[in-house]
Amino acid sequence: AQRVTQPEKLLSVFKGAPVELKCNYSYSGSPELFWYVQYSRQRLQLLLRHISRESIKGFTADLNKGETSFHLKKPFAQEEDSAMYYCALRENRDDKIIFGKGTRLHILP
Amino acid sequence: EAGVAQSPRYKIIEKRQSVAFWCNPISGHATLYWYQQILGQGPKLLIQFQNNGVVDDSQLPKDRFSAERLKGVDSTLKIQPAKLEDSAVYLCASSIPRGPNTEAFFGQGTRLTVV
């Protein structure tokens, strides 16, 4: 069965320190991977997707098919990065989107 | 463009009562998803529509939950009768079918409390 695993429920990082949110997946086909973010009192929104290979708000994520990982990274954390982060996988067969349990990122001043 | 609209925002009901949630997706989005998000967990897919047809409802508790998408636009999700463990945020999302740079857009959600 398809699965998305985010091993950390909570990650606390000092402002200016590097951030890495881990995501591992299991899927037999070629998935599309995403990171979604939910800021306090806001709706869930897309942060970035692996296909675009883009950097959004300083965040990047590289799909590693060998390790089946899609870790989210940022070199220097900012206080406004505090939020819930969800890794998600979209199946290429029927557009089904599966989410991990999420990691709460807390940036310490 | 207008986002995904959901109503109501909050609902409190007693167990064994019925409740319905409504979702209006972004215009032109053929795919519509309903997710259940229990406190402290990630969104769990309940049902996925493509236009007015069901693509996946494998995780929908069909003895008490039902959903429809008449005319392939708006959708309603119903719970009858509700249980305490149904307390959660119910999220609706929509997207265009798979293609370059597509993404799912989410509504604000409906927070259901069953007492």
Structural overview:
The complex is a heterodimer of chains A (109) and B (115). With 109 residues, chain A is mainly β. Chain A is 0% helix and 44% strand. Chain A contains no helices and eleven strands. In chain A, the strands form three sheets. In chain A, strands 2, 5, 6, 9, 10 and 11 form a six-stranded mixed beta sheet that branches. Chain A has a three-stranded antiparallel beta sheet with strand order 3-8-7, with no helix packed on it. Chain A is globular and about 45 Å long. Chain A starts with a strand and ends with a strand. Chain B is mainly β and 115 residues long. Chain B contains no helices and eleven strands. Chain B has strands at residues 5-7, 10-13, 19-24, 31-37, 44-50, 53-56, 65-68, 75-79, 88-95, 105-106, 110-114. In chain B, strands 2, 4, 5, 6, 9, 10 and 11 form a seven-stranded mixed beta sheet that branches. The A-B interface holds A 4, 6, 9, 32, 34, 43-46, 49, 51-52, 86, 90, 92, 94-102 and B 3, 31, 33, 35, 40-45, 48, 50, 55-56, 91, 93, 95, 97-98, 100-101, 103-109.
Cα distance spanning the termini of chain A: 40 Å
What composes the largest sheet of chain B? 7 strands, mixed
- The run of helices and strands of chain A is EEEEEEEEEEE
- The share of residues in helices of chain B is under 10%
Number of helices of chain A: 0
Uncertain stretches of chain A? none
